[in-house]
Specification:
2 domains, Rossmann fold, alpha/beta, globular, six-stranded parallel sheet, four-stranded parallel sheet
């Protein structure tokens, strides 16, 4: 009662928990205030939390009135975790404001600039990209890999760069502002998302919106984010050799082919992942 007092005194048509994990322990609050309950499924909710706490959503699945998922992949995983297929559900992809800047120069830098944005955790697969940088260097390709973000894997990843002899080639940039990240996305030669799993990944969406050439693992909802061979490229996850080869193939493309993929990516984001489209989907969600 005390913890949920700020909710219990409200009068509303819908009580919506933006993350499934935040609804745990509050599964009956909507019923108590005689309103409908919605819940959103995001990467952490489905890919990580249930691994630690099995059957954590049993009560939530029973009491929720409608489910929102940011990808088809997460919704299917929720079914595997016990959500009934008969429960009303809707997929509304993440949305972004189209950045005012976009990539226009596709000449290669020396060294090649590779970028990843994400938490420094094991699920982001950063160690595999670091290994691929070492493999490229062994083959005579010099790359500079910038990682934007912070997390518990920082020291482990630094030690890996030292062991592979590429400490000077990997930059841990820490946490940067949104505008700084967009500039890095525009100026990099390739954006890489080497994740072991992803619920969708807004960073990949923004990189495409800027026109970056994107390579991502073929896991989770990343195949819903990138159209392989058209707006970017998908590679087998946890495979440094495959990633290194994909990077090599991408840098060898002609400027015309690079520009085509870049334009495809930016056009698709502008068409399908804008704020206006997002808002229309939410209006329909609450009116259902």
């Amino acid at each position: 009662m005390y913890i949920n007092a700020h909710i219990l005194r409200k009068k509303m048509d819908w009580l919506h928990f933006g993350f499934a994990t935040t609804a745990i322990g509050r599964e009956k609050v909507a019923k108590a205030i005689q309103t409908k309950m919605a819940v959103s499924l995001r990467g952490y909710d489905i890919n990580e939390y249930p691994v630690k706490y099995a059957k954590c959503y049993q009560m939530l699945w029973k009491h929720v009135d409608q489910v929102h998922s940011i990808s088809n992949y997460l919704l299917q995983k929720a079914y595997e975790l016990g959500l009934s297929p008969d429960k009303p559900s809707c997929i509304i992809f993440p949305a972004i404001s189209l950045p005012p800047i976009h990539k226009s120069d596709f000449s290669l830098h020396d060294p090649i600039r590779i970028l990843t944005v994400g938490r420094l955790t094991s699920i982001k697969g950063l160690s595999y990209c670091i290994e691929s940088i070492a493999k490229l260097k062994e083959g005579g390709i010099h790359a500079q890999y910038t990682i934007v973000g912070d997390g518990i894997e920082y020291e482990k990843l630094v030690r890996q760069t030292e062991a592979l002899g590429i400490k000077e080639d990997v930059i841990f940039a820490g946490i940067l502002s949104h505008s700084e990240i967009l500039m890095l996305m525009r100026d990099c030669d390739i954006y890489v998302q080497p994740s072991i799993n992803e619920g969708f990944c807004n960073a990949v969406l923004e990189a495409q919106a800027v026109g970056s050439l994107c390579i991502a693992s073929d896991v989770g909802a990343l195949p819903e984010n990138i159209v392989n061979g058209e707006t970017g490229w998908l590679v087998q996850s946890m495979d440094a050799n495959a990633l290194a080869n994909s990077i090599l193939n991408t840098v060898r493309l002609s400027p015309i082919d690079k520009r085509k993929v870049s334009n495809n990516a930016r056009t698709r984001v502008a068409k399908s992942f804008t704020i206006d489209t997002h808002l229309k989907s939410w209006n329909q969600f609450y009116q259902t």
